[in-house]
């Protein structure tokens, strides 16, 4: 029997899972590591921490499972996107990696827009210049740490640094490279035009592969540290959301997923390139060769509910502790008692600013319609509804771009809530499902490794063979119409408040 390993390199830690060909996890290990914030708005990590975590977790799952390492057919890598890793000529790390959530590069984003042109940048990279993306980080180092930039010979993303340590190869793949703002996304290759205008040496970038392609093989040195057999293939893998799409079976047109974690994501598969000229959503190459995905991001999704829990739900937290249940379970039960529309109370979830569809760092959260009749449970339900409406904003943009959504998968902490899933089904007016596996990105990249190793014929066939879903939650007759009335109020509020947000930020 052939086994597969999926490595998911997150911001808080790395999780590695060993799977059998049916997608069943046999062993799992997680190692956490710190994030450094030397200044307000900065976020960095040590790439050596990533590598140590990957080596330890792979070694742990190989030993725990008792599987002969000769039977491990391949390794897939997933990870946090956009991070900047810089290596010198000898392959040594020059500085801590600058992460996806780092916000230091506003001036560099202006520089990119000026040099490439906003419209041309979106045409080529499918996105406007954003502080989270890698290109602006490269320019920041060049502008502020010229001595380090002068020594730089290799630029890698987080998971691709791990690939280098495993295989000795400098390589990336299309889904993760799409988030660097250096890739020609429609043509799935580095953009000579962008690189030339930004004066970035193309030789510093790794070779670009499709996600299921073999990019290298485990070296003798990596074999000693991980317990993997020398020569085991390592495939391209995928960025975290592209990997999650494979792990949930969202690999054909008409399928999408909604993630309600700290932030919220609406992700739709597309066999044709679709770019929003206004730059409201992100278009990236996806893990299925020759296909793309379009993604909207809400910054304060699950974070809104966490904020509400920590500030207003101490009773529920204490009761839940006594009952041995999650506080969110009790909060769901209380929110269920409140009617659709939260008794005419509308919440805007902009507590961290917003990304989709309003690229506005100044907007802030709002309870609109608050009156003396309202209780904290009306507010609780309005928070859940407001987050759902923010996801609906992304869905409307995707539909405007010609993408069809017939089936929505629900992921993340919010996806485990039956009430929240029903809100999604009613608000989107489509079926909402969950997958039986909880492994998400790790399973996704393990399946990509299976394709690269020849176990599965294609990514689509791999998902057909492995991904199982639970029964769907369908829209309840009459509910979509009720939510629609409230959504139209929600949708009109941001334009009305936009100038007020700017005034508030200037105080």
Strand order of the largest sheet: 18-19-17-16-22-23
Considering DSSP H and I runs of 4 or more, what fraction of the residues is helical?
40-55%
Distance between the termini: 65 Å
Q: What's the number of helices?
A: 19
The SS-based structural class is: alpha/beta
Query: What would you call the shape?
Result: globular
Main sheet summary? 6 strands, mixed
The whole-angstrom Rg is: 23 Å
Tell me what portion of residues adopts beta-strand conformation: 15-25%
Overall pLDDT confidence: 95
Q: How many β strands by DSSP? A: 23
Question: Which parts are unreliable, with pLDDT below 50 for 5 consecutive residues or more?
Answer: none
Question: Mind explaining what this structure looks like?
Answer:
The chain has about 500 residues and is α/β, with parallel strands linked by helices. Helices cover about 40% and strands about 20% of the residues. The N and C termini lie far apart (about 65 Å). It is built from 19 helices and 23 strands.
Keywords:
5-stranded mixed β-sheet, 19 helices, alpha/beta, about 500 residues
Topology:
Layout lengths: L2 E7 L3 E7 L5 E8 L11 E2 L1 H19 L6 E8 L5 E3 L9 E2 L7 H11 L1 H8 L8 H11 L1 H6 L2 E3 L1 H10 L3 E3 H4 L5 E2 L4 E2 L1 H7 L8 E3 L4 E4 L2 H7 L6 E3 L2 E2 H8 L6 E7 L3 E7 L11 E4 L6 E7 L2 H12 L1 H10 L3 H10 L9 E3 L17 E3 L7 H25 L4 E7 H4 L2 H11 L2 E3 L7 H12 L6 H8 L12 H28 L1
Parallel strand pairs: 1-5, 5-15, 9-12, 16-22, 22-23
Antiparallel strand pairs: 1-2, 2-3, 4-7, 6-8, 10-11, 13-14, 16-17, 17-19, 18-19, 20-21
Helix pairs in contact: 1-6, 2-3, 2-4, 10-17, 11-12, 11-14, 12-13, 13-14, 14-16, 16-19
